[in-house]
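Summary of Year 1 activities. Much of the first year was spent building the evaluation harness for sequence design. The harness presents a backbone, in tokenized form, and records the residue chosen at every position. We chose the following record to illustrate the format because it has been used consistently in internal testing since the harness was completed.
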């Protein structure tokens, strides 16, 4: 049961981050990128399922006007 609850918590966080990435507010986009950066070492197995989405996110954010968002995407 605990593993299922953990998966749901991670999924809720990922849904929130995907929403932040789509925001027009640059601080939300930057925060989501920073959190993704930290998550890679913890839930890499879970994130692999979203490889296509993550590639699209980083491709999109690398084209952002704000330098801090481009740096976070790197």
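For this record, the design step produced the sequence shown next.
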């Amino acid at each position: 049961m605990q593993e299922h609850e953990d998966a749901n918590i991670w999924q809720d966080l990922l849904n929130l981050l995907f929403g932040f990435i789509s925001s027009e507010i640059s601080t939300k986009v930057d925060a989501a990128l920073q959190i993704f950066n930290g998550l890679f070492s913890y839930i890499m197995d879970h994130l692999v399922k979203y490889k296509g989405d993550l590639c699209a996110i980083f491709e999109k954010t690398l084209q952002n006007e704000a330098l801090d968002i481009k740096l976070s995407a790197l």
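The CA atoms of residues 3 and 67 lie 38 Å apart. Quantitative recovery figures across the full test set are reported in Table 2.
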